[in-house]
Amino acid sequence: MVEAARVAVNHDDRLGSFYERVKLRRGGQKAIVAVACKMLKIIWTMLTRNEPYESRNQRRYDKKLNSVAKQ
Predict the structure, then answer these.
(1) Apex CA 26: angle with CA 29 and CA 20, to 5°?
(2) CB atoms < 10 A from the CB of 59, how many?
(3) Separation CA 64–CA 66 (nearest Å)
(4) What was the pLDDT predicted at 57?
(5) 24-68: per-residue pLDDT in tens?
(6) How far apart are CA 69 and CA 47, in angstroms?
């Protein structure tokens, strides 16, 4: 999950800004672990409520859905 968090902070604005705020107070390693924890909480909420992730890039999401539909 930590490796996924490292990628997520570069591609998701909301998680990236969260990472930067925590990094200033606690340091880089603890910030990545905090992002991983936040991601797990988001995943849990998505699964229990059966909802999509709200902070997605809509254009990229539509492109990905189209490519999956073509396959």
Answers:
(1) 80
(2) 8
(3) 5
(4) 66
(5) 999 999 999 999 999 999 999 999 999 887 766 677 778 888 888
(6) 23
